[in-house]
Predict the structure.
Amino acid sequence: MIGPGSAIRIRIALVHGAVFLLLGGCLLGVVNLLSGAGTRGEAEEIVARIEGPDVVRVEQVSGDVSRAASEQLLIWSGGALLVMALCAVVVGWWTAGRVLRPVHEMTARARRLSERNLHERLGVSGPDDELKELGDTIDALLGRLEAAFDS
């Protein structure tokens, strides 16, 4: 669900996908360079073992095969990278939703507070992390506001 409070969730998902795409592209570049160097090396070894007039033809064929293999590797791995980047965006979207769920719950609780129910607190539970610290800070603020209203 995309709502007005989803901007950070969208940014997290897109950053997740972009980082995956960048790192995956670097990986594919390295793999393509290494596989090209490997096939050239193999072709050179084959040519070195052959004697006579067939050397030129074998060299040409092995070069053509090496280029075709590199092109196919680049095309298929590039397509796979795009599909996986899309999957990374989806996983980023889902992960961001799970991570931001406590923020949405705290926001909803804070919106329900008024001068009549200042005694209520957010009461964030869970691990001692930044979100719990935020909830505890809001609860302390509510305590000070309640004391100010009572006086």
Remarks:
- The CA atoms of residues 130 and 136 lie 10 Å apart.
- Residues 4-100 form one domain.
- The two ends are 44 Å apart (CA to CA).
